[in-house]
Amino acid sequence: SQQGEEDPQALSIQEGENATMNCSYKTSINNLQWYRQNSGRGLVHLILIRSNEREKHSGRLRVTLDTSKKSSSLLITASRAADTASYFCATNSGYSTLTFGKGTMLLVSP
Amino acid sequence: DAGITQSPRHKVTETGTPVTLRCHQTENHRYMYWYRQDPGHGLRLIHYSYGVKDTDKGEVSDGYSVSRSKTEDFLLTLESATSSQTSVYFCAIRDQTGVNSPLHFGNGTRLTVT
Q1: Which is nearest to A95 in space by CA: B27, B73, B48, B69?
Q2: Cα separation of A107 and B67, whole Å?
Q3: How many CB pairs under 8 A join A and B?
Q4: Cα dist. A101→A1, A4, A6, A73, A91 in Å?
Q5: What does the pLDDT read at residue B21?
Q6: Chain A residues in contact with B32 (beta carbon < 8 A)
Q7: pLDDT, tens digit, for every residue of B1-31?
Q8: Mean pLDDT, residues A5-21
Q9: What is the 3 state secondary structure string of B13-43?
Q10: pLDDT of B52-98, one tens digit each?
């Protein structure tokens, strides 16, 4: 069963706009991770936030985590056409495995 | 791609035939994983390995077996392929520094079972 569920399923924006996608999960976690997948490629790790952190930044990425609501958000600022991809959240609940959501497809138009 | 090679990249096979997919890493990482990706389901874990000869089942392990006889190789076998196993299969690796280390993925194998 899926642990994380991303919302929205698809998002279409213009270059320069910000993109926000959300992830909800069901059980307690050690950390939550975000990955990007370009068409026809494997997933690439973007950022990890631990359960005792509330916000984390990496370049144009900002991730927040609210463990009381069991939710996380990924903000991509000043989007570029190259940001077009699917984005997945994944949760680690203290074991060796990660459980992935179904992903958000982001389309950034020039 | 973090030194991960999946082979073959594409395969078409017939129902009932055995199929083996290979994942090879050059990173000497302890953990290796097989996921399948299907529309509407995201990525689902099939099997994983936490060392040579040490493997465990994931969420969707029925119809699949794995073997890891060397650190660098993790094989996924479909014992008798079915059409429901048509999917894109991803291998991933993770080092042994702990649960806060990320996964690194290969570029996938697209398998079609006719």
Answers
A1: B48
A2: 39
A3: 64
A4: 9, 4, 6, 13, 9
A5: 98
A6: none
A7: 569 999 999 999 999 999 999 999 999 999 9
A8: 94
A9: ECCCCCEEEEEEECCCCCEEEEEEEECCCEE
A10: 999 999 999 999 999 999 999 999 999 999 999 999 999 999 987 77
- The residue written with tokens 């569920």 in the block is A5
Q: Give the CA angle between residues A49, B95, B90 to the nearest 5°.
A: 85
Nearest residue, CB atoms, A97 vs list B48, B90, B107: B48
What residue type is assigned to position A61 of the chain? L
B44: which 2 tokens? 């689902």
Question: Which chain A residue has the Cα nearest residue B49?
Answer: A96
Residue A20 forms beta bridges with which residues? A75
Contact partners, residue B49, CB within 8 Å, separation at least 6:
B31, B32, B33, B55, B56, B66, B68, B74
Cβ–Cβ < 8 Å for B111, B87: yes
